Amino acid sequence: MFHRESGYYKTSYQADMALYPLPIGRYAVAGFAVLFFIICPMFLGEYYLSIINLIAIASVGALGLNILVGYTGQLSIGHAAFMSVGAYTAANLATKLDWPFWLTVPAGGAMAALIGAIVGIPSLRIKGIYLAIATLAAQFIIEWVINHSPAISGGVQASIEMPRPEIFGYVLRTQAELYYFLLPIAAIAIVATLNLVRSRIGRAFIAIRDQDIAAEIIGINVFKYKLLAFAISSFYAGVCGVMYCYYFGIANYEAFQLNISIDYLAMVIIGGLGSVLGSIFGAIFIVLLPIVIRLFMETFGTLFVDEAALAQIIAQLRLIIFGGLIILFLVLEPDGLNKLWQNIRNYFRVWPFSY
Fold it and tell me: Rounded to an integer, what distance in angstroms lies between the CA atom of residue 185 and that of residue 274?
């Protein structure tokens, strides 16, 4: 039998704010933990593990952007710039000072949080599209500083070779080994976000998003919490950048350009603004989209075009479908994939009744 609500029996604030109010929620989390930490590495090959690794990296960045955009209502188009700050911070610490990953990961996040808080200062005076332009300017400024500062970027190519992470002297090289490095970080980010958004800070973020003037009237320090949202979001972005560098073994500015910021913005829009689960859905969708398109075109594309033009068509088709899906979700389902999941879940919560 499923453990479903048959009434409202919560008698305390703690019970009302419980992370998993029903036993089935705890069972589901335990089941997913067993699935991803034990079963998947045992039965999946390197290719499929690499896809999960990319989703884990993207999920951390999407969670950070959703805290800023979805929960606080502050539009940002410079997320990739904060990822580059974390990436180059960790790369320099790892190569010049031989810091281990358990120090470079939080250090990269902390430096990105500092830069993010500085970029967030104009958020008290401007909002909406004007704030988006300010973050876009930050994207270009940070890119320029990294490219023209050899002490940061490592030289003309703006690339720093990143050593593989080590655990007790053992170097993680294969996809399965990196899987156990990346997935725990993603799991910690998910749990931290779930607890953040149901805390006093999270409620302040939501109040600012819904109506910042009313939030200020009831005593919320709007400027403080806006800066905090930028800092937390940038911390996640910095950690995401560090994960990316350890995974690919290099810190390069080309991996953190404007198109990456657009990708992460699309993740939170398609997945669902103001939703932790939506961030994960969006990361899965955006990571799998080019893979599915490539497999489909390689299988059926030769029926319509020759092989010489197939590669170029695949690249252009990805952009066309990508933009079309964003428009489609904005028009048909503004709350994204998370809303579709909620509709399915709510159906089974009340089944067999229709209300």
Answer: 21
